[in-house]
Amino acid sequence: MAFEPLQTDEKLEKPIKAGPNFEAQILSGCSFFVVTSLLTYLIGVWPFFTFPDQHLIAKFLIACAFGLLPSAILGVFAGIKGGVPGACGFLGGTIAIAMFMYLRIGQIMLGESMPDLPKPDYPRAASWILPLFWTVIAIIIAGISAQIGERAHSKKQENSR
Questions:
Q1: pLDDT digits (tens, 9 = 90+) for 116-157
Q2: Which residues of 49-83 are buried (b: 16+ CB within 10 A; e: fewer)?
Q3: Which residues of the chain register pLDDT less than 70?
Q4: Is 42 exposed, middle or buried (CB count within 10 Å of its CB: 0-12, 13-18, 19+)?
């Protein structure tokens, strides 16, 4: 006797290829988000610990360039490769970098009131202008790269059908 007593199962000529696994997609998206956000943060903040004399605007901008440009490159790659999860991971790391920059500039600004610390070379408004500027740039990068990544992913799915 067959496993199905009424024998109404459809006879297939060849086995059907399994579709995408939902749990695997969720896990890979979440993992990509977490790894991207951590890498973005680590790449973005290391120069602030290594470059001295950040009370001078030129030295501070050099530290920003050494951290934020590689971080932006990672954001473009993450958005294109990972789509929305990669772009959102980049934004998560970017917001952490912006908070770090705000606190770091606030720490440097203590030089205005404490005689033992060097006086900063830039205005107090830089403590919110620079992190806000970086966040806006990162939102633009994430939006564009996520759109490119999602288009590439949808074309890849159409070609596999």
A1: 888 888 888 988 999 999 999 999 999 999 999 888 877 777
A2: eeeeebbeeeebeebbebbbebbbebbbebbbebb
A3: 1-8, 160-161
A4: middle
